[in-house]
Amino acid sequence: QVQLVESGGGSVQSGGSHQLSCAASGATYVSYCMAWFRQAPGKEREGVAYVSTSGNTRYADSVKGRFTISQDNARNTLYLQMNSLKPEDTAMYYCAARRCSWWARPDAVEYDYWGQGTQVTVSS
User: Fold this and answer.
1) In 15-54, at which residue ranges do the beta strands (DSSP E only) sit?
2) How far apart are CA 80 and CA 20, in angstroms?
3) 100-123 burial string, b = 16+ CB within 10 Å, else e?
4) Consecutive 10-residue runs of the chain (124 residues): their mean pLDDT?
């Protein structure tokens, strides 16, 4: 059983930076695609950043160049570094995992393990 626990949410000024963490248990990054999703009030959940089992990353156009997904295999922790934050980045952020093959595109799989979410609020 895979368990994901996000942390690091909070309030930040527009233009600022923030980092989210996701502690994973029961999963090894070499076998799992990992991702960050977000959902703002009244909006659908959207994928923000993805990393494959081979370490390839993909990003939503809305965050490309500003957000970076990374992982620490020794600590089983996934990170999302967010720079140049905008008010429209305000959302609940979720960590997600899916067992997948090395050739799988991490933005094309259906994720089946989810964390409880952590809130990020960006004020103008």
Assistant:
1) 18-25, 32-39, 46-51
2) 5
3) beeebebbebebebbbebbebebe
4) 94 97 80 95 96 94 98 88 98 96 91 97 96
- Tell which residue, 43, 22, 19, 46, has the closest CA to residue 107: 46
SS3 content of the chain, % helix, strand, coil (to 5): 0, 50, 45
The residues facing 51 across adjacent strands are 34, 57
Q: Quick one: which of 62, 4, 69 has its CA closest to 35?
A: 69
Q: d(Cα 48, Cα 63) in Å, to the nearest integer?
A: 7
At residue 1, the pLDDT reads 80
* Beta carbons within 8 Å of 50's beta carbon, 6+ residues apart: 33, 34, 35, 36, 57, 58, 59, 69, 106, 107
